[in-house]
Amino acid sequence: MVVLKSLLFNSLSDLIFGLATRIDDNTESRFGFNLSLTVGDDNRKVEMNRQNFFRSLGLENRVATQNQIHSDKIVYVDNPGNQGEADAMITDKPNLGLAISTADCTSIFLYEPKRKIIAGVHSGWRGTSLRILEKTMTKLEDDFHADPKEIFAYISPSIHQKNYEVGEEVAAHFDAKYSLPHGEKFLLDVAKINYDILRKFEVRIENIQHSSLCSFEWKSLFHSYRRDGNISGRSLGVIALKGHF
């Protein structure tokens, strides 16, 4: 198992973060190191993979998951386990991980140190068109009194614009500056849209880490549904507040 860390989050002593890759020398699954129960993998292996990954973060049995549906639904979490259908989770509870699943979609992880609150957001093109990150930021500000200027944000590896071809019906949801004509199609930059949303809320540039890694191109590291289709697994990124049990 190889876990990707964030340089930004590593500099914050009261934060736990890790993003699983598809690398695991011990697995025999055609999906690689897969953490999804919905892609046709052996669920026993998936549960074992999850346990090993969560344990490596010091969060065994202390992680919240969600059934992602490409929506704008945001839930507050105070207990581990499955939270049902949602695409963003918020918590201020220590030692409780928030897990976001991805295989190309943009994932954004947020931390506000003054209010000690974190969030994990799944934002593919549908969620981005529904402004899920914007709504999460607004919820943090309005309901939890978080200061956007104090927020630290990590935009995890996702599919890059040059590899993300969409039709006009998708590109039309967004400002034209985020898409490039590509024959009769368009190349869409979903991560940049979400980056600009963070900046719209005045999150400081130095408080944002935008990964330069493309999930589609780095086949040895990342799952990619656009690249592998139905044989693609899923990774999980997990963020948690450190605390005492």
Quick structural overview:
This protein is of the alpha/beta class and 245 residues long.
Describe the structure.
By secondary structure, this protein is α/β, with parallel strands linked by helices. The protein has one domain (3-241): CNF1/YfiH-like putative cysteine hydrolases, CATH 3.60.140.10. Helices cover 22% and strands 28% of the residues. It has seven helices and 15 strands. The chain has helices spanning 7-10, 43-56, 125-129, 132-144, 168-171, 190-200, 225-228; strands at residues 3-4, 15-20, 63-67, 74-76, 81-85, 88-91, 97-102, 106-112, 117-123, 152-155, 165-166, 179-182, 185-188, 208-210, 235-241. A six-stranded mixed beta sheet has the order 1-2-15-7-3-5, with no helix packed on it. A hairpin with a 2-residue loop joins β12 and β13 (185-188). The longest helix is centred in the N-terminal third of the chain and has 14 residues, at 43-56. The chain is globular, with a radius of gyration of 17 Å.
